[in-house]
Design brief:
The protein has helices at about 15-25, 50-75, 95-105, 125-135, 170-180, 195-210, 225-235, 250-255, 260-265, and strands spanning about 5-10, 30-40, 80-90, 110, 140-145, 155-160, 180-190, 215-220, 240-245, 270-275. By secondary structure, the chain is an alpha/beta fold. Helix 1 links the parallel strand 1 (about 5-10) and strand 2. The model is unreliable at about 115-125 and about 255-265 (pLDDT under 50). InterPro entries: Rossmann-like_a/b/a_fold (IPR014729), Universal_stress_UspA (IPR006015), UspA (IPR006016).
């Protein structure tokens, strides 16, 4: 199986860190890495006053930078089964991702995030939040600023067991297969019992994961789920956090909150958001 990995870039150090993480995560797998750049002309005045002779060199420069990123990735890759392509487009980041998803059947989008910066401590950054909200074709792996690759021995999957696990759980299993990772299932609840529906969903999950090493973990709901997840990550040496982006889910609440201090959540490890399948 050849994996199709999309790495959007704005040519920042942040974006390059995400690219490096992707290369190492898939170091032993046949992959095609698509480096994409969405070019938009930002002008506070009227577009009609800007000549094409001014814009064209800017476009050419961006294309050259994109090609340079691809060549740099080739040098970093340690696998002869890795292939590299570029996708240069005009318009928004979302348009670029949607185009790549449709044309190349992308398996995973890997993006760098700005993390907590400045007085407001913005979580993820506006681009990442937009992509989480709108991308429905492929999972999104958000790589924090300055995150260095560690072999993902442990993957965290928080769940309330309130929904049946369909194709979405395949994404967690595919991630675990890359490095034979253990899957830590985390349930956060004030009650110490599960409903009949929750028990049924738990049993179906166990069946789905029968060929994987996994652990079931229960935590009381203290303060916020964000605090519980953050503490579990820290205490259990988790390498990647995964969640399914259901409607009215924890992720939805998380990305609506701009001030991290109120949430107590700031992931220092990659965060894979799995789109729900409607």
């Amino acid at each position: 199986m050849r994996h199709q990995i999309l790495v959007p870039t704005d040519f920042s150090d942040n974006a390059w860190s995400a690219a490096l993480y992707a290369l190492k995560l898939y170091a032993n797998k046949p992959c095609t890495f698509y480096f994409s750049h969405a070019w938009t002309f930002l002008n506070s005045g009227s577009r009609t006053h800007i000549s094409q002779s001014y814009i064209e060199p800017l476009i050419e420069n961006a294309k050259e930078q994109l090609e340079a990123v691809k060549e740099k990735a080739k040098l970093e890759s340690t696998s002869s089964d890795h292939e590299f392509e570029t996708i240069f487009s005009y318009g928004s980041l979302m348009d670029s991702i949607e185009f790549a998803n449709k044309e190349h059947n992308i398996d995973l989008v890997v993006m760098g995030t700005k993390g907590a910066t400045g007085a407001k401590k913005i979580f993820l950054g506006s681009n990442a939040v937009t992509v989480i909200n709108k991308v429905r074709r492929a999972p999104l792996l958000l790589v924090p600023k300055k995150c260095t690759f560690e072999t993902p021995k442990k993957i965290l999957f928080p769940t309330a067991f309130t929904r049946f696990f369909g194709e979405e759980i395949m994404r967690v299993k595919q991630l675990a297969e890359l490095h034979e990772s253990t899957i830590d299932i985390l349930h956060i609840n004030k009650k110490d019992t599960l409903s009949d529906i929750q028990n049924s969903n738990l049993e179906s999950l166990k069946t789905s994961l029968k060929d994987f090493e996994f652990n079931f973990n229960w935590m009381p709901d203290y303060n916020t789920k964000a605090h519980a997840i953050t503490d579990f990550i820290k205490d259990n040496d988790i390498n990647i956090l995964t969640m399914i982006n259901y409607e009215h889910s924890f992720i939805e609440n998380l990305i609506k909150e701009p001030v991290i201090k109120k949430l107590g959540f700031h992931s220092r490890i990659p965060f894979m958001v799995i789109p729900r399948i409607d």
